Structures are given as C-alpha cells and as structure tokens.
Amino acid sequence: MATKQVQTTEWTAQELKERLDKREKVFVLDVRNRDEFSAWKIEGREKLPMLNVPYFEILEQGGKDDVIESVVAYGKSRLARELPQDRPILAVCAKGGTAAQVVEGLRELGYDAINLAGGMRGWGDFYQVKPVIESPKLSIYQISRPARGDLSYVIASQREAAIVDPLRHIEHYLSFAQEKNLKIKFVLDTHGHADHISGGPALADRVGAPYYLHPYDAIHPIDVLPAKLSFEFLRDGQEFSVGTAQIKTIHIPGHTLGNVVYLVNEKYLLTGDSIFIESVARPDLGGRGEAWAPLHYRAFERLLKLSDSTVILPGHFSQPKEANAQGLFAATLGELKAQNEGLKMVQQGEQAFVQYILSSLPTFPPQYVDIKRVNAGLLVPDEEKASELELGKNICALAQAYA
After folding, report:
1. CA spacing 20 to 30 A to 255: which of 82, 106, 125, 343?
2. What's the CA angle centered on 209, arms 234 and 196, to 5 degrees?
C-alpha cells in the first residue's frame, strides 16, 4: 500500500535560508503591521517579491466569524490577482502563530502556502556557520545572524579558540566549540556595540575565559558613565596566541573611541565596525560624529597601509547580496580599495572623506543608546526586552549601503 506524502506546511529559519541561498523562487506574504514590515523584512541574495497585508485587515475585510473563513474570503476578493500560483507563498508574522492560520486559509484556496516557523522572531534568532579557512594550524569560522546582518568569528588552532564579537545567543558558540573539541581561551570584542547585545561577557563567564575590551569603550559615550562589568584592558599592538595562530590588536578609533581590529597571522583582518564589503562604519553612534569623523579617517589611513592581499572579514553586512560565491562576507583589501566607495573617499584626503561621511549618515536608531547601556553593564534587560532592542537589521554602515 502506497504511503501518502504529507505536504510541507512550515519551513524553519534554516530551511528558508538554504532555499534563499539556492535562489529558489519564493513569494513572501507578510501579515505584520505596516510599520513593523517597513522596519524589517525577509531578504535574500536576490530581491524577493513580497506583499504586506496586515492581519487585522484580512480579518476586518474578510468579514467572517471564523478566522480561516475570513482568510479564504479575503483571498478570493482581494488577493487572487496578487498571489502567484507558480511558487511557494511564505506567510510571515511576528512569531509564527498568526501566519499559520493564514496558511491554512490559503491552502484551502489551492495555494502552496508555507508558514515560517517562529515568524520574524525565529528568523531574527537564526545563526549560520561557514568556514573561511579550515586547517589544523588555523581555522577561522564566520558565524552570521543573517536577518540582522551581524557577523562574528571563531579563530581556532590546535584545539584552542578565540571568539571575536560573539552575539547575544551564546549557546551557538558553546555548542560549536563542543562539536569541534575546542577550548575557548579568549573572548574578544572589537568595540562596545550599539546595534546588538554582545555575548562577550556572558560567554567568557560561562567558560572561565578572560573577556577583552578597549577601556575607552568601557565608558558609555552619551551617559558618560563607567561600565559595570568585568573585563581585561585591550591596548594597541597587544598580541594573543591561540595554538600556533597569532592575533594582533590594532586600535583604530573612529566608529567608537575604543574601536579595534584583529590581524590574524598577518593575513586575515577581522575589521569589526570599520571596513565592510560595500561601505564603511559610521562615526556618530556615540553622539560625536563631527568630532570622531577625522579620527575615522586616520584609522582608515592606517589600515590601507596593510598588504592588498589581506583578507577583510567584517563585523556586519548591509545586504545578503554582498556575500561571495561561497556565501562568505569576505574580500581582499585590494579589491575593496577599488570597489568600496568609503575606502575610495579615504584616498581623496581628510576633508573630502569627512564631508562624505557626515553627509551619508542614516537615521540614528534610538534603541542604540540602550543597547550600549546593556553592553556596558548599566542596564540588564530580560529576554523579551533584549529581543525588542534587537529588532530589525543593523544600521552601522553609511546610508548608501542600504539603498
């Protein structure tokens, strides 16, 4: 007797990411409120066709007592000409429950409708690991949070590891270290982050490793209050050994006063918030854009003296299309000198660079002030508040990167 095949009605965030990476055809029906949709959307390496119809509108205009019946009625009257029949329709809401009902109604109408498990919350909390290089002497892994455009790194050699810019959900780093049989020796932040909550202090505490931060970033730049957390001081030129790998600290104030980058084996540069693939970091998130922009220029001058073969591994990306053919956010310094508008402006001199930077600043997200408080130990949010602060993608690059 033949087994009846059950149709998939839900994708996990990982399944969605795999399909997007393969450039499979997907149509997104987002049923969140319009302000939530405008602030944060599902993105792929190619632009996704999508439609935003708030759930309350479906219920009101569907006009039925039963939710599913309202979806069916609204689908017949309003969506018949807008929803495609030749591809899956991914229904998206905040946490997955509302969209599941929409999917049920759309399936009654014959659409291949799929719910995103966990909704945008689940998508926002998804992490992905990709190797940059993998060998016994040196391995570097890029750990991304695709929905937010956040990147972090594991540097490993001879079963020792350093974690750079760990994100909030530290269980991903703990399980990865266990999988690879790595002992976490150091936890390093490139700076006091504004766009996301650092997992650095919690991760270091969990594994009994030292947490390093430049002391200039242990003062909240707007409150001008000292941090209430335990950390070790970073300094320019400081070196760390992980197995046979060497990590050199380079202090480059500009994005923050304590901003640093890490040069691994003189070849791989973990740039944090300084050089991105298609842009450079903004200098105003500490409220001192005009004062810090010249510092930013001198920092880039210093970095541009490194070898053109240096592999740049940034702390963020602005759009998924910035990934290379392997799905990594990486490029050589020589390539970025020729392609990255911010770095090309550095080569025009300080005055031109500062003018370009200050005329290219995106909106200042107000929640970034509180995120910096969290990262300085001045504010301790619960999980719900932490998730709320991190809603949306990072806005750490210049405005042109998000166009």
Report:
1. 125
2. 65
